[in-house]
Amino acid sequence: MKTILVTGASGNLGRAAVAALKNAGFTVRAASRHPQPVENSVLFDYTDHTTHEAAIKGANGVLLIAPPLDADAPEKLIPAIDACKFLDVRHIVFISALGVYADEKSPLRIIERHLMDCGVGYTIIRPNFFAENFTTGFLAPMVASGRISVAAGDGRTSFISTADIAAVVTAAFTHGSHNRSHNLTGPAALNYAEAATILSQGLGKTVEYQAISEEEMVQGAIKNGLPASAAQYMALLYSGVRNGWFDIVTDDVQQVTGQAPRTLAEVIARRS
Fold first, then answer.
1. CA 248 – CA 266 distance, rounded (Å)
2. Domain range for residue 32?
């Protein structure tokens, strides 16, 4: 039975990946900075290299999930990749992001390049925005208030469920699909007004979309406690939404898992 280390195990995607891998028969080490008092929960902190060896040693595969909206991600993940190589990990699956290959200076692209050159078998997974952002992520408080206010303009996004990303992760480790990449999207690209309508129908309450300026979004995020660098990173992402960078649909989920990706309505029905 293969042992997989899952970093960021306390986050939305990390929890989904842990569950999917366990269901597939893997032994899973759930790694985070604040491990839970449960079996196979381990301490792993990207910024504390002394936590790496104990968490990684003996793992056959590692799922690397970068901290969200982190411009300094290369400084944190590259040492972890090097530790995986030193400790003879056979397969690294890295959660990147859709479109990063368009900018070689993008933090996640820098990590991708290092991973591709490090000599360890890899799978790179590039998902679009998570559908669960509306239900349990950073947009959930806005949804609860009845108004989603972001600088998305009329741009469309093919939101993807973390459950579908986790299914692709599980397939990658199951089949040992080394040195491959997958661009993951949901089944349809929606603008935020359309997403608000789907949320309204699924939740049985009125949810509206209010397009705001990038500056309003950044200042609001900082006011709510997001570091300025992370707020600027978010602004860059939403600039991409407005410019149509995330208005694409791929069939990678279907090709890898044999199942069509979940719709936003299905995600809401499952989490509401």
1. 20
2. 3-128+161-185+248-260
Whether 79 maps to a domain, the answer reads yes
What is the count of structural domains for the chain? 1
Locate 201 and state its tokens: 């129908």
Q: What SS3 state is found at 189?
A: coil
Rounded Cα–Cα distance for residues 3 and 254 (Å): 26
The CATH number of the domain holding residue 44 is 3.40.50.720
Query: Average pLDDT of the chain?
Result: 95
* End-to-end CA gap in the chain: 35
Distance of CA 157 to the CA centre of its chain: 15
Measured over the CA atoms of residue 8, residue 12, residue 18 and residue 20, the dihedral's sign is: negative
pLDDT above 70 as % of the chain: 99
Is the residue at 227 inside a domain?
Answer: no
Torsion of CA 37, 130, 28, 48, to 10 degrees: -60
Q: Helical H runs in 27-123?
A: 52-56, 73-86, 107-117
Over range 53-72, report the average pLDDT.
96
pLDDT of residue 40: 86
Residue 94 domain flag: yes
| pLDDT band, very low/low/confident/very high, at 150 (cuts 50, 70, 90) | very high
Q: Per the domain annotation, does 200 fall within a domain?
A: no
